[in-house]
Design goal:
Length: 125
Amino acid sequence: MIVTCGTDIIEIDRIKNLIEDTKDKALNKIYTEDEKKYCESKGNVKYQHYAARFAAKEAIFKAISNKLSNKFEMSWQDVEILNDENGRPTVNFLNSKIEDIENIEISLSHCKSYAVATVVATWRK
């Protein structure tokens, strides 16, 4: 078994400004419909949740990029971060062929100014 990890931290204001400046363009490029629905449901703290999911996608790419071939392309929307029934974040790979991944665990956290994500992936090979 091989274990890889990735982490990312981002300023929430950076994501807020990106979303407000580009309107739907950034939202539609980075986030899935279910991610947008979840974040928008958070009212005044929605940008914390958008930022956490952005950091998560960056951390996931860092954790899996060394196992991907150079010809493999992955878009922002190929990775979806949702919560299970207990509120625990989960990773869904959409439209991607991630081979040999056995498990992926993710932890998200945010405060007023920053969001952070940590990912640990285990591989069969």
